[in-house]
Amino acid sequence: MRKQGHRSRAVVAVLTAALVGVAGCDAVGGDSAGPTRKAKTSPTPTPAWDTSPGSVAAVGDSITRGFDACGILKDCPDVSWATGSSTQVDSLAVRLLGRAKAPGRSWNYAVSGARMADLPAQMTQAASRTPALVTVMVGANDACRDSTAAMTPVSDFRAGFEDALGVLRKSAPKAQVYVASVPNLKRLWSEGRTNPLGKQVWKLGVCPSMLADADALDAAATERRDTVQERVEAYNAVLKEVCARDERCRYDGGAVYAYRFGTDQVSHWDWFHPSVNGQARLAEIAYRKVRSVS
Question: End-to-end distance of the chain based on CA atoms, in angstroms?
Answer without folding.
Answer: 81
